[in-house]
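Lab meeting prep.
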Amino acid sequence: MVKFKILLLLFLLLKIPSFFSQESMLSIDGTYLGKNLLVSNPPQADGFGFCVNKVTVNGEVLPATIQKANFEIDFSLFNIKSGEQLFIVLEHNEGCIPKFVNPEVLLPKSTFICQKISATKNGLISWTTTNENEIIDFAIEQFKWNKWVKVGEVRGNGGQGLNNYTFQIITHSGKNRVRVSQIDNTGVKRFSPETSFNSLSAVVKKSPAKVRDYIYFKANQKAVKSKFELYDAFGNLLKVGFSDLVDCRNLVNGIYFINFDNTTEKFIKAGK
């Protein structure tokens, strides 16, 4: 009898930590797009049962069996409609970590169709889209310095019907080429056709050729602001901005390259 009590006491002592074990949480949010979320559910650290104890979707408990190595969060059990926002929480024991197997199913996919895009000489970009299944930001891109440069962002409206957008860019001299794009959960950029226009902006010139303190931008002999990027001889970006001058006092002596207006020029930084 004494031996039995000792064994029972040892059993309870071993189990008490699990009764009072702390729980952790793993969460994810996104949009319901018609697909269910899969969860990889490892065993608890002590080998008794599985890691996840409870699953909630927008605050409601998942009414399904989760005590298995892999389970599915079936959103149809919650009468959730496509396009609704989701917040999923996994409550699990410490010492083990569950995993969302396919989190990309909650991320939006770009489907927009650009019906038309145009621009004025002053740089007002207008575009019309249809078939926006999801709400995704549009990036406005301008081609300069031999590359497409993001110059702004507009929130997409979503929906299947016509959506009209406008955005004012800062023009550079000469021919301006612009387009809009979206990047979704695939990481692939989808972009509209490009449009172009000849701006009213005057050609910007920089001075001096050999720099000690500052680079100055002028157009028609007057100071003018320009977007710029400054790189060292190894292609490392050092400065970026929009101004009528660039402070070069903290640059070490050497060769540099600067993108401004619609051109790229080399210059030498020399000490006093």
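Slide two material, second protein:
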Amino acid sequence: MSGEKVIFCGNNPDFLDKKLTALSNKSNGSNAFRIPSLIRSGKTLIAAIDAQSCGADWGYIEIAIRRSEDGGETWSDIEIIAAPPARKTMLSDECYASAFYIDPCMAIAPNGDVILLADFYPECKGLHKRSILDKKKAPYALYNKELRPTLYDRDGNFYVIDKSRNVLDRNFNTTGLTAKYETGELFKGDEYLGNIFLNGKSPSNINEAGVKTTFGAPLKAPKRNYLFLLKSSDNGKTWSEPKDITGQVLIKADGTFLGVAPGVGITTHKGRIVMPLYVDRKETVSIYSIDNGETWHRMAAHPYAQNIDEWQMVQAPSGAVIALGRAKRYGKTPMSISYDDGKTWIKAGKTNLYAPKCQKSIISIGDYVFCSHPNSKKRENGVITVGKFYKSHGKVAGINWYSETEINKGFFAYSCLTRVDDEHIGILYESEPSSFILFKKFKIKDLI
């Protein structure tokens, strides 16, 4: 095992021990961090994270990355690749006058593009204040045989944004308004009217995060979770603008939250990108793309993936895909299996991997499976548990776990594994409740 490296480090002693904030600098620092995602693109490692204003699951949250081209020895300066609109920012969880991104999940498309999927919320507190979410407002409407985003005025009248960014009324007549939907900007001609993802009519003079602020538009997008996707075609050097894919995979039964299960997705042997999602009642959802992430699909006849909460998956050499979920309390880990390339799933009971209620990461190399997780009844003492796929009646039926290797002692929460090269795997993990994200490498031969 090589030494740990600080990849993301908070600079606010309200959220991280002052001794640790001393390690924060312009290359790795911001106010607070959570939720790591790590992937290898070519010979480049890409680490993605929630860069937060306050360490909570709301407030001003951007998606940030760092890159390494030498196997994790050195890393590029931190870079923001997705920034939400904000009306007011404070370095406190009392403020939620901002839209926010949260929970990155990356995958590598068959053509080599890096796919990053994240949740996006308009101004609200997300699942932490469900009462203000718009349960009765449809986020999309059918126009010209295509689902298009909707907006609403204060009287509840709905509007539709067409492909040319024109805002149409409920009878599909033009209104003279245009909307840049993914960024939220609403215009009447050249006049800027505000942001559809924010409340309020005027900007605030409170901006503790030091970012660009604005004000709410008279028409607003429904308050709910959206799925926004970014792409990079150059190993994470540059990224596309975020694109909303929610309407391609959302069904009514999902409610106001169809969200990303953070970590990574997979690309199957057949070239299908499969990404893990879940809904508020903790059922899991599998979405997939067969065109390098341009369009996304979900099995209408079997819309849920038969697992629990935040989940991750691996593919066996035979083609079977095994998924591990997040149990409601300490105990064995829920497992499900797909035999059709991640489209439909069956429950497979629980595997003998004991962990508390916490996200875990899982990757496979040949017949070997590597899973990082807390090794305690609470979020502490991280380990990498190693197992091998086993078969029953000629089919892959589960994983036999046989060894554990210590990652750390003390606090350990969300993590993400990836293969660094032929000899090493790497892990990006939370070693404090907020704002201290470390990277470690392990030799594969020492783990198995």
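Talking points for slide two:
The two ends are 13 Å apart (CA to CA).
The mean pLDDT is 97.
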